[in-house]
C-alpha cells in the first residue's frame, strides 16, 4: 500500500477541492450563463458563491499551517528530478492561486461596495473603499486568476487520473 498523506491533510485537500470547484462553477454560471442584469437568482447565486468561497481563506491558512508542520509523503513511482521539480512548482502555484482567487474576489466586492459574507456567520471588512476606478480592475483580476486556477485544477486532476489509470504508480492513492 502506498504511503498516504495524513488524515487532516486529506480532509483539507478534499474539502477545499469541493468548495473551490463548487464556487468556481457557481461563479461561472452566475456571471457567464445567466442573462446579464440584476435578478434575484443571480444575486442569490453570487451571495452563495461568496459565502463558501471566502471560507477557502480559512482553510488555506489551516492547510499551509499543517503542511509547514507535517512533511508530505514521498512521491511513489519513478519520477526524474525535473518531474519532481515541476510537481513541486505546480503545487506551490496551486497554493498561491487558492489564496489569490478569494482575496481578489474580496477586493472586487469591496471596490464595488458589496458585502463580503463568510459562511452565513460573519461579514469580512472591506479591503479597499468603494471605487469606480478599482472595481473593474479587481473584477478583471478576479476573473483572470479564477480562470488560471481552473486551468491548474484541470491539469492537477488530469495528472492524478493519468497516474492512476496509465502509470498505475499509486500517486492518487496517497490522497485517497
Task: Lay out the secondary structure.
Blueprint: H1 7-33, H2 40-53, H3 55-69, H4 81-112, E1 116-118, E2 122-124, H5 134-167
Antiparallel strand pairs: 1-2
Helix pairs in contact: 1-2, 1-3, 3-4, 4-5
Query: Helix count?
Result: 5
Strand order of the largest sheet: 1-2
Which range best describes the helical content: under 10%, 10-25%, 25-40%, 40-55%, 55-70% or over 70%? 55-70%
> Low-confidence segments, ≥5 residues, pLDDT <50?
none
Count the beta strands. 2
The residue-averaged pLDDT reads 92
Report the sheet-strand fraction: under 5%
Structural class: mainly alpha
* Distance linking N and C termini: 12 Å
Overall outline: elongated
Order of helices and strands: HHHHEEH
The major beta sheet can be summarized as: 2 strands, antiparallel
- The whole-angstrom Rg is 18 Å
Keywords: Cell membrane, Electron transport, Heme, Iron, Membrane, Metal-binding, Transmembrane, Transmembrane helix, Transport
Pfam family, one: Ni_hydr_CYTB
Organism: Neokomagataea anthophila
Protein name: Cytochrome b
